[in-house]
Amino acid sequence: MDEDNLLTIIFASLGIIMVVTSISFLFPKSGLTGFAISTPLINPIYLLTIPVLVGALFLIFKTPLSQRNPIQEYISNSRKSGMSELQIKNNLTEVGWKESDFKKFLK
């Protein structure tokens, strides 16, 4: 796994923990903080949600978003929008792509 994805998962899980903690202070009688009159009781469901959310974030960032070539994506989207092959070819050439890079996708 990339270092960037790992850092994203760590910071996202820290953010989730901070949000849960902040919400618990908004509802002091929920039993999550020491502000309740009686002994605070922590619902085990709250403790299970954090690992579940961290696991979900891990799965989301572990899977790649797209395996397709960016040129292939551009050509496909351009054809859907109604551009001609000449326009697509000119646009790709303008931004620096070589004709050998995108020639196979224009067929």
Overview of the molecule:
- With 107 residues, the chain is mostly helical.
- It folds into 2 domains: 3-62, no CATH class; 70-105, no CATH class.
- Helices cover 64% and strands 0% of the residues.
- The protein is built from 5 helices and no strands.
- α1 (3-26) runs antiparallel to α2 (44-62).
- The longest helix has 24 residues, at 3-26.
- It starts with a helix and ends in a 5-residue tail after the last helix.
Helix content: 55-70%
Low-confidence stretches: none
User: Total helix count?
Assistant: 5
Using only C-alpha atoms, the radius of gyration works out to 25 Å
The run of helices and strands is: HHHHH
Number of strands: 0
Which range does the strand content fall in? Answer: under 5%
Helix- and strand-based class?
Answer: mainly alpha
Number of domains: 2
> Can you give the mean pLDDT?
76
Shape: rod-shaped
Biggest sheet details: none
| CA-CA gap between termini | 35 Å
Quaternary state of the chains:
single chain
Observed structural traits:
107 residues, mainly alpha, 2 domains, 0% strand
